[in-house]
Every structure is written in C-alpha cells, then in structure tokens.
Amino acid sequence: MPVDPGALDEGALNELMGRVVTDLGAIALAPLLTIGERLGLFRAMADGEPVTPAELGKRTATVERNVREWLSAMAASGYVTYVGEGRFRLSPEQAAAFTDEDSPAFVLGGFQAFAAAGRPESRDRLERAFLNGRGVGWHEHHQDLFAGTARFFRPGYALHLVAEWLPALDGVVDRLKAGGKAADVGCGLGHSTLLMAKAFPAARFSGFDYHVSSIDTARRLAAESGLGERVTFEVAGGKDFGGGPYDLVAYFDCLHDMGDPVGVLAHTREQLAPDGAVMLIEPFSHDDLAENLNPLGRAFYAASSLICVPASQSQEVGRAMGAQAGEARTREVANEAGFGRFRRAAETSFNIIYEARS
Predict the structure, then answer these.
(1) DSSP 111-155
(2) Which of 3, 94, 123, 330 is deepest in the core (most CB within 10 A)?
(3) pLDDT tens column, 168-185
C-alpha cells in the first residue's frame, strides 16, 4: 500500500536513510574485511608505516588496482587511515582490531562468523525455520562460523576469565589451585578450557561439545599446547556429559543456545561436587527490551536471530532463550533446574557472569 508523502516527517526520513546507508556500507564491507584478512592485507600494514596501494600490492602479491579500491573502502569506514598523497596506514588501534588475535579488541572473528551465518545455504535453512519453527542446528552452518565464533570470543576470555571471572566465584580458585576438577560444557574449539588449564596446573579439565569437528580441533590444540595429559575433550551434549563430580562446571556463551537449558542444568547439578559451582557466561543484556535497543543489543539480537534461537529450536524442548535472555530469565531457568542460589558475580560491557549453586 503506497504511503502518503504528506504523512512523512522529512527529518525522521532523512535520519532513517542515513542509518540505511550506514548498514548498506557495512554489509558490503563485511566480505571485504574477510578478503583483506585472507590475503594478508591487514597483516602487511601491521607496522603502522604508510603505504601506497602499489606497495601493499607488491607485499601481498595482489593487484594494485583492486588494493586501491579496498583501501579506499576501509578508509571511508575508519578501519584504515588515509594520510594523504595516496598513502594509507593502520593506527595502533586499527592494528589491534584487525591484526592482533591476542588483543581484546580483535574483531575479525565476528565478521567471519556473521558472514558464515549469512551464506546462501544457511539463509535458505533459516527462511524455512521462520516458516516451520524447526530451527537450524549449529552443526548445519559453514565451518567458518565455528572458527569465527571461537576467534571472536577468545580475546575477551583471555582478558577476563582468569583475572576476574573465576575469582568472583566463591572459593572456586582455591579449589582449582588445590587440584580440583572442572568441566567446560559447549566448549567449541576449547579455547576457554585451555585458558583455565594453563592457569591452574594442578587441576584437571574436561571439555564437552556435541559437535564432532569442534572436539577434533580442541584435541589438536590441547596436544599442541602440551596440555593433553590434564585436559580431555569428549563428544557429549549438555544432558549426557559425565566424569563428575566437578568443583566447577562452566558454560561460555552457550546455555541460551540449548534446547532444554533446564534439563541441562538439572543434569549439571548431578555432576557437581558438594558445594560445587556453575559459572554461566552470557551476553550482556538488560531484562527490559527497551534498554537493549542500542548498538550492542542490535548485534546480539541479530546474532540471536541468525544463530542462537534457531539452534535451540532445532533441539528437543526448544526453549529458545535467545542471546538477550537477561538476568531474570536466566535465573528462572536455574531455579527450575533446582539451583537455590543464583547471583550475578561479575560483568563486562559484553558479558554477565552468573554463579549458581544448589
């Protein structure tokens, strides 16, 4: 139905169009970021020295004309700095975001994951899921989603997990130092498991995930890091992992993806040692939708629409908490599973860390 032009607020329309142009540029830029990483364009600029497109092309064995257009797109986005006279450079901040995988500001994993989730075959499955409610399993996505997600979360975990999150849990650090036992459920490629294992050499760690290829990668990384004797990775879901009793069971940004989070946490209670703790790392979210309508909420709701809610719907129960479940709904799930104690132990701009005990 046509809209009456006289009913339009010109200022509001212009503001909306500005957002649309910004988003169109972001959509077009996402594959260029991935191309830039794969071809080594960002890495070749990591020293921060100004380069011309011809110089960057020579360094990376790429074509100058294509590189010039790529650099111009990056500069227009603020991802590369144009210094004039046809030269471009990476500022220290840009280098941290686009070249340093150990930096907490590293972002290319996020672009890799979102690009994978938006691939045509994934989009077709998602469209069907919107029509039939049967969801799209995590394992049905392109492998770049698994690698990109791990790369996106790892820097934040490396910065906060050992230094802040584990110490915020009552008595857990002391148990791990004394040779305790911990499980990482939904561990993916195992980065979170290995970070804990490196920090607590007397403790033993087990990582579990239903996704076979992720567990294969986690085992390889454990062997390469020399932690294979103290860390094990097994194919298992949240309702059938074993090996307890555990002093700590952790869920890193994954409980909301599970079809039956109540059943998962009820099983977790059975695997806990006396006064053992559950650590739930979840995306930062307010309970009120209106408070989440901001750039961070937009990213999380988009990820949840593409990945998290369909993943849950593909499983039994299909509770579909979503990445913006918030504290109230997470507490509700923990209480239904039989946890009498639940608290917000810590938080960052991107995550809330909950502690649950029987």
Answers:
(1) HHHHHHHTSHHHHHHHHHHHHH-----GGGS-HHHHHHHHHHHHH
(2) 330
(3) 999 999 999 999 999 999
Q: How far apart are CA 280 and CA 345, in angstroms?
A: 10
Report, in angstroms and rounded to the nearest whole number, the Rg of the chain calculated over CA atoms.
Answer: 22
Q: Residue range 288-307: average pLDDT? A: 96
Tell me which H or E stretch contains 195. helix 191-199
Quote the pTM value.
Answer: 0.92
Name the residue type at position 103. S
Whether 7 shows a pLDDT value over 80: the answer reads: yes
Cα–Cα nearest to 283, from 297, 302, 271, 270: 297
Backbone angles phi, psi at 68, to 5 degrees: -60, -40
| Distance in angstroms (rounded) separating the CA atoms of residues 19 and 309 | 26
Show the domains of the chain with their CATH numbers: 5-98 (1.10.10.10), 151-357 (3.40.50.150)
Rounded Cα distance between 173 and 176, Å, is 5
DSSP state of 2: P
First to last CA, the chain: 56
Task: Collapse the DSSP code of 275 into the 3-class scheme (helix H, G, I; strand E, B; otherwise coil) and give the result.
Answer: strand
